[in-house]
Amino acid sequence: MALLEVKNLGITFGGLKAVDNFNLTLEKGALYGLIGPNGAGKTTVFNLLTGVYKPTTGTFLLDGKELKGKKPADINKAGIARTFQNIRLFKNLSVLENVKVGLHNGMKYSTVAGIFRLPSFFKTEKKMDEKALELLKVFELDESADTLASNLPYGKQRKLEIARAIATNPKLLLLDEPAAGMNPNETNELMETIRFVRDHFDLTVLVIEHDMSLVSGICEEITVLNFGTELAKGKTDEVLKNPEVVKAYLGQ
Amino acid sequence: MLKKLKFKKPDTKNSFVTYGLLLVTFAIVKILFEAGKLSYMIKDLLVPLCVYAILAVSLNLTVGILGELSLGQAGFMCVGAYSGALFSNLLEEAIPQVLIRFPLAMIVGGICAAIFGILIGIPVLRLRGDYLAIVTLAFGEIIKNIFASVYLGLDANGFHVSMKTASDLNMDLDGEMLINGALGLNGTPRDSNFTIAFIVLFITTIVAYNFVNSRTGRAVMSIRDNRIASESVGINVTKYKLITFALTAFFAGVAGSLYSHNFSTLQASKFDYNLSILVLVFVVLGGIGSIRGSIVASILLTLIPELLRGSIGKYRMLIYAVILIVMMIVNNGDYFINLKEKISVKFSSKFKKTKKEVV
Ligand SMILES: Nc1ncnc2c1ncn2[C@@H]1O[C@H](COP(=O)(O)OP(=O)(O)OP(=O)(O)O)[C@@H](O)[C@H]1O
Ligand SMILES: [Mg+2]
User: For residue B150, what is the DSSP state?
Assistant: First the structure.
């Protein structure tokens, strides 16, 4: 059975069909790309898959379970985590704490145990610290664990968002332009990291990206969106040679 | 509305400094008190000072940690004051030991206030925007006016309630008046004293710090910093807003009960919106999100106008206004926040060095 099945998904904003008849099947472990010109509807697809927007048509299933209409928090609990195109970190919290918020549902103790500092507080907090640091290490952020998230340089903020998303222990990870604002070196490193976390944490990854070197470097297959509809779909190198796709990109 | 303000993050090291400062202050005041060095005016202020500090610390959880604006502290305090006072009044004979009855009365006041907090929070906290401020402001005024028009008496035949006049109660002559309309609470045992009030403030402070520095507190701060991201990592936003708001209401209720046991009679009109705004001023000027700041600001800003009363009477409010402005700049201005950070970094690095040398 496929991990993610998206059927005929669509949404209209006051007459504008931002996404129309979107279909996608992701097998477990896939590293799939979603590309398209500005305003094509890529981020809107992510917002639909994470419950930020409710679809006007269609539905989607994760592991055979229908998630359409569920709230964002419940969709995350079901196994979808994401990053944001316009970075959304918890600015007044430290790097470590940002990841620990991601661990919120995976490692629990009650509010009362927290207030009265019961043994479960110390035990769980210690485990959380260890797990969070382990995750930060993957992204080479462990040195900055105590830094305020807002004081990190841009590239590291993007990495921290990925670490926080993975902390929720998802099955499917949605990355919205993870390489935006990175130089070619950083982008290469990021590609390695994405591959590594996919294998290490048993993830399936759907990535939106404008940087074609990243797309052709790590995505096995891609879908091209244009004006909210699917323009092409298939093996990455073949799709990128498709004249329709080239035209859509050059035409912008 | 609150988004533009800077939030300070209380940490564990910080909390122990605050506990230390509180204990030292308590010891000094206690010594001066026993030595008879305190004026009547200051002595009368000791319990209210603790009450204001408790109100400010608890409001800071909603304003500074959750990032929602609430103007309901006076209303919750009113609920706590009345329910706690009634509890003590009715059980004065059944539980003669003050040290058992009074803490129970405060818990009763806290729980009643928390119930109101939850009832208000369930519909309002789902909404985005400053609805909470509007609704809590209205709640405070409504509660105050309702309590101010209730007459409640107790005699051999049981309770008598009226919303009109005291004579409508038709009580026996030996009946006891518990709530006397606009004249307020009547015959509350005067169980409050400075030591008990300080202990309650101390406990409130510990609970506030522990709450913030826990899994729940992190979830709450994540909502404040970025609600959409918070939801995206599986945080149940409404639940954590409600927990925080209920905790704020609980301690406001405790403070109310503490306050009502400081006077044998107390009018509901004391709990008007000016009080709620005053507490908000303490929180904002103490530095939003800083628990120690809330305590210091509530003490300074209550004491200063009183101390200025005698000597420089004419300029009292002028000086008070200048102090407010200076505190606003020092605690919320970029320059001073950076300066303080630099100083604390210097201090902590020195501290670490000496520690290493010792080891
Ligand atoms: N909440 C909304 N209300 C109205 N229109 C919206 C809303 N969200 C998105 N849109 C519109 O939907 C279209 C698709 O936007 P979307 O952000 O998905 O594009 P994108 O493919 O992610 O583009 P980019 O590469 O610039 O990030 C745009 O025309 C946008 O203006
Ligand atoms: Mg986008």
Answer: -
